[in-house]
């Protein structure tokens, strides 16, 4: 089925949507994005994604071409037009297309940002990966120093995932100065003696919207949380591990660099957090 997508104020069939070859998203990776999950036709944690988008834009001296209320309406309309019961909405804002290539930002009065949104249909709730658990490899951090901004510069993430697939694994965790920063497209956690351990926020990792929600729900459920650095060796000796992201929610991890965690099956804390997340996130869906 041909999707209806949104480009700069227009709803179009995907085959007719066009962006200039001079668009800075295309030429320089000068664009930010968000992915909001859809469950039962509703947007999960739109508020969180909206807030992070505003921050990413601010960090790059960009302004959204529409208001945040309009953005919500565009999300909703695309979900409806494409009959999305379960899946996601991808949103990208680039600095726009000047009439040539240059490193300097163009005058924002002259060049308007490019806004693109499209939907993806996917089974999210019933996931074979969540039932089975992921095998991850560690990989030396190779991305830029502002990983707190959600930009479309994702080659590092793609390379890390390909490296994992090459050795029969599912995903990769980045390691910098001996400590795990985050997963290729998710935040990383270990569990030891019932305590949930995850790296504290900084420029070195993305402040996951799912991370914030999961930590809040875990605290409400009286679970212990410690935000600190951890190594791959500590992770391999942990009772369990998991990652979080908007589209995978809570994804159990059963093996790190060939070492099985616990009995090699998804752990109880990860499973419980996935259940709590799905239940609580649905209550706030819009
Ligand atoms: N870290 C990175 C590098 C990511 O790409 C993502 C999601 O795409 C996350 C963390 C998780 O963020 P969120 O929970 O907002 O999806």
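^ Assign residues to that structure.
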């Amino acid at each position: 089925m041909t999707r209806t997508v949104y480009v700069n104020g227009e709803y179009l069939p995907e085959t007719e949507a066009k962006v200039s070859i001079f668009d800075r998203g295309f030429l320089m990776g000068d664009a930010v994005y968000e992915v909001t999950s859809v469950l039962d036709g509703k947007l999960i944690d739109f508020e969180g994604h909206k807030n992070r988008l505003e921050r990413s834009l601010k960090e790059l001296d960009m302004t959204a071409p529409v208001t945040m209320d309009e953005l919500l309406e565009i999300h909703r309309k695309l979900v409806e037009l494409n009959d999305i019961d379960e899946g996601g909405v991808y949103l990208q804002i680039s600095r726009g297309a000047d009439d040539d290539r240059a490193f300097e930002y163009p005058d924002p009065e002259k060049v308007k940002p490019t806004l693109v949104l499209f939907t993806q249909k996917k089974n999210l709730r019933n996931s074979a990966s969540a039932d089975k658990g992921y095998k991850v490899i560690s990989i030396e951090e190779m991305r830029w120093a502002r990983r707190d901004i959600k930009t479309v510069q994702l080659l590092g993430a793609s390379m890390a995932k390909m490296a994992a697939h090459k050795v029969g694994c599912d995903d990769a965790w980045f390691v910098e100065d001996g400590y795990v920063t985050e997963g290729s497209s998710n935040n990383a956690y270990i569990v030891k003696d019932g305590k949930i351990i995850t790296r504290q926020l900084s420029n070195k990792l993305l402040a996951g919207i799912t991370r914030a929600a999961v930590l809040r729900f875990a605290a409400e459920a009286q679970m212990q949380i410690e935000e600190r650095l951890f190594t791959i060796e500590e992770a391999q000796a942990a009772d369990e591990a998991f990652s979080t992201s908007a589209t995978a929610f809570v994804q159990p991890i059963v093996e790190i660099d060939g070492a099985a965690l616990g009995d090699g099956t998804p752990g109880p804390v990860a499973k419980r957090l996935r259940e709590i997340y799905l239940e609580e996130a649905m209550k706030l869906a819009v």
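The domain at 128-284 is CATH 3.20.10.10 (D-amino Acid Aminotransferase; Chain A, domain 2).
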